[in-house]
Amino acid sequence: MKFPYLILAWLLPGLVLAAGNQDMSVLEKLADRFMQQEVSHRQASYKLGKLDRRLVLPVCQNPRVDWSNAAQTSGNTALVLACPDSGWSIRLPVSINEKQLGVVLTRSVSAGEVLQAGDVKLVDVANPAMARNVITSLDLAIGQSMRSGAPAGSWLRSFMVHAPYMVRAGQPVKVEAGGDGFSVLSEGVANGNAAVGDAVSVRLSGGRVIRGVVQPDGTVSLSY
Hints:
Elements: H1 3-19, H2 24-39, E1 44-48, E2 64-67, E3 75-83, E4 88-98, E5 101-105, E6 120-124, E7 145-146, E8 161-162, E9 165-167, E10 172-179, E11 182-190, E12 194-195, E13 199-204, E14 209-214, E15 220-223
Parallel strand pairs: 10-15
Antiparallel strand pairs: 1-4, 2-3, 3-4, 5-6, 7-8, 9-12, 10-11, 11-13, 13-14, 14-15
């Protein structure tokens, strides 16, 4: 009848040790939940590494997880899993792949056309090396004017568009000059094309050429 007790006495140290060791799968699940939250607002996927099952750490009731380097949260990086109560910390590798999107034209467009919502769409960028200067947001494309024509399916790059011209060369414009306590309004003819916020030269009725900034209402403003 002593054999069961002998067997239990022989197993007990191992059982106590197992109960006191940190379960690595628990830490991996904690890291996975952390990553799910971190990439929930990003167009990204991730792949977590595995913890070495040979590690023997005291069990932790409240393990914590954070970035190993808060300035490096993409590409090949790492998380730190730590237990303040026990004083241990370990690194867990993680690879993050940012999903890059780019704007393409849905139809052929001509120079000077203003892009509408149906003219563009977002697609995955399979090869980031080919996506240099590609516009990454529809908001940055819609309402812009084409500098040159392009066929359907073309990537829309930043140098291909500009803000619509508010003032065009040869167009009569009002010129407002102002300063502390005074404002003078005159008329002239624009010497070039310009969008809101751009500088443009204007020939006044008397022949003088001035340079001012185009306002949202089309007025060219000078400040003194």
